[in-house]
Specification:
single chain; TIM Barrel; 45% helix; 11 strands; 8-stranded parallel β-barrel; alpha/beta; 282 residues
Length: 282
């Protein structure tokens, strides 16, 4: 299974510097374990949390990775920012991506979301109502320039349009298996990436995903919950999703905003010791 990691770049209740340092340390650890992708998310306005700039984080990561491995061989990415497309002018986004290309030593794929929080657009003085058109316009221009683009999708219409535009389809986390299958069917021939969130809570590390998923649902995102269970159970479930959807890339979230540093490191280390080796064997 070709897997990647969504780096935790959200700071809840302060601690931005600590989160930045932890994201870089995590990137080192996941890259050493064979991750095919290091992914960052985007919320320009922050809100309940402060979200580090996705391209700035990956620029720092690129400087720490050996240039020979900064972009994985094969069809998919090693560094991939996920951007709210309409929250910045297209020319600004293109320049920032070109700068990241130069630092990484290769063209970097990008995931584009339409966005669902008006605050992200208000902070950038960009029109929220135009977010879908802005996403497709940016996607088409980047594809025309030769960049690999993934478009985030949670509806069949979005998945179908992404595929018809020549983009990969990037499915969000926490959806039901039926919804995943429906979205896959809408773009059956398009490259597919899926995001799956894991909650590795145990007796020493309390669950951290519930608050994040409650916020998702309050904003209308059709999220169910993160996957939880013993390592063998999680590997089996990931294998079932991979068999049903045949993704080119499975992006996993392992750590969560607001976790104490020691809890985040414990969950990362558990993933690397107990789950990553099983993914490599699939």
């Amino acid at each position: 299974m070709r897997w990647g990691i969504l780096l935790c770049t959200e700071a809840a209740g302060g601690g931005v510097s600590r989160v930045a340092r932890q994201a870089l340390d995590d990137a080192d650890a996941y890259a050493a374990a064979g991750a095919a992708a290091l992914v960052t998310g985007d919320h320009p306005a922050g809100g309940e949390t402060t979200v580090l700039d996705p391209i700035a984080v990956l620029s720092a990561v690129a400087g720490r990775l050996d240039r020979r491995t900064a972009v994985a061989a094969g069809p998919g990415p090693h560094l991939m920012p996920s951007l709210v497309a309409g929250a910045a002018a297209a020319a600004v986004t293109a320049t920032r991506l070109a700068s990241l290309d130069a630092l990484a030593g290769a063209a970097i794929p990008v995931a584009l979301a339409a966005g669902y929080r008006a605050a992200d657009f208000e902070a950038a003085e960009r029109p929220f109502a135009n977010r879908f058109a802005a996403r497709w316009k940016l996607a088409e221009s980047l594809i025309a320039a030769g960049r690999q683009v993934w478009c985030c999708a949670i509806t069949p219409r979005a998945a179908e349009r992404a595929g018809s535009a020549g983009a990969g389809v990037y499915l969000g986390p926490g959806l039901t298996e039926g919804r995943y299958r429906e979205l896959r069917a809408a773009a059956a021939d398009a490259p597919l990436a899926i995001r799956v969130d894991l909650d590795l809570a145990d007796a020493g590390t309390p669950a951290a995903s519930a608050a994040k998923y409650a916020r998702h649902r309050s904003r209308g995102y059709p999220a169910e919950q993160a996957l939880s269970g013993r390592p063998g159970e999680l590997l089996a479930r990931l294998g079932e999703l991979a068999a049903a959807l045949t993704p080119a890339l499975t992006v996993l979230r392992v750590t969560w905003p607001g976790q104490p540093p020691e809890a985040a490191r414990r969950q990362r280390d558990r993933f690397l010791a107990e789950i990553a080796p099983g993914l490599a064997a699939r």
